[in-house]
Amino acid sequence: MANISIGKAWEEAVSFITREAALLFPVALLFVALPGLIVQEMTPPELQAWFAQPKVDAIPVMPPGFALAMLLGIVIIWFGSLALFALALRPGISVGEALRLSFARLPVLIGTALLVVAAIVAFVVLIALLGAVFSLASQQAAAVMGLLLGTAAVVIIFFVSVRLVLLNPVVIDTRAGVIESLRRAWSLTRGHFWRLLGFLLIVMLLSTLVGTAAQVIVGLLGGLLAGPEGARLAGGIAGAAVSAVIQVYLLVMLARLYRQASAD
């Protein structure tokens, strides 16, 4: 098991991004920030409120075509992320070559996502069946068991997400198929869970704080110039831009951590 160093990955990422910013940021803005902003603008306010506080018994009706647009946006973001990993993992590669490689490997990433989603759905169905069985015996027992099973499901999904955090670099850097890519990504993070978890939590916290600050400040300026609608749009654009910058640093760092973890 190879050692990984977050500090070393950060130093290498800063150095690489400083040199290759002209390649990385346009790709991030076009294929990561822009699709996310478009989907955000298409999302109705009531659906945004539900995403913030999901309630099983109060799911709002999605507008026609919204689900398809959201899926398309996610696929484009995956495509852009793979291209960024290609640029980070193969110094000297052109943007065009990175995009072509990303397009060629995108079906593998989609296949891994479908397989993981299928496993999660099967797990959730199993939990629902267990809850139904306990409800036959006692409503109180069913409520307690439902809470325990729900908590266990969240913990397991979170654990799997951290263990597969190096999946994208595995997909773009190898010719492995769906199963082998998942197996490889899982093995690379063995023994590094807590370190990767801490790193991801810091990035999430930083992204939330900086993104919110940018949205508020730029939104206020937009509101002064163009009213409430201008404030919302300006805040959304600022948030998307900040997200793109943070994504570049995150993905390049993950690429460096992948190189460290896969070193023999």
Task: Explain the overall architecture.
The protein has 8 helices and no strands. α3 packs across α8 (193-261). The protein has one domain. The longest helix has 69 residues, at 193-261. The chain has helices spanning 6-42, 45-52, 66-89, 95-137, 139-163, 167-173, 178-188, 193-261. The N and C termini lie close together (8 Å). The protein is mostly helical and 264 residues long. It holds the Pfam family DUF7847. Residues 5-260 form the DUF7847 domain. InterPro entries: DUF7847. It comes from Sphingobium naphthae. Keywords: Membrane, Transmembrane, Transmembrane helix.
Q: How do the strands and helices of this protein lay out in sequence?
A:
Elements: H1 6-42, H2 45-52, H3 66-89, H4 95-137, H5 139-163, H6 167-173, H7 178-188, H8 193-261
Helix pairs in contact: 1-3, 1-8, 3-4, 3-6, 3-8, 4-5, 4-6, 4-7, 6-7
